[in-house]
Amino acid sequence: MASNGTDFRTAVWRKSSYSNGDGGNCVEVADGLVGVVPVRDSKRPHGPVVIVAAGAWVPFVRALKAGDLSG
Question: Which strands sit side by side in the sheet containing 36-41, from one edge to the other?
């Protein structure tokens, strides 16, 4: 789901541990928000935020780590 106008200016964002310092494809997530995991492109910090339900986030990350996203 895309951002619904929620103000994330005070959110504490962290870059993915898989990101590197060369400006490549990086995502950031904000921690500590009940029930949701906001995700954004680190190169566009003022751009759109995708909001993922917390219950969907863990299985998604597990699938990424396992390389199991064949659909």
Answer: 13-15, 27-30, 36-41, 50-53
pLDDT 10s per residue in the chain (71 long)?
A: 445 567 777 788 998 776 666 656 688 999 888 889 999 988 888 888 999 999 999 898 888 888 876 65
Alpha helix stretches (DSSP H) within 1-71: 54-66
- In whole angstroms, what is the distance from residue 67 CA to residue 13 CA? 25
* pTM of the complete model: 0.72
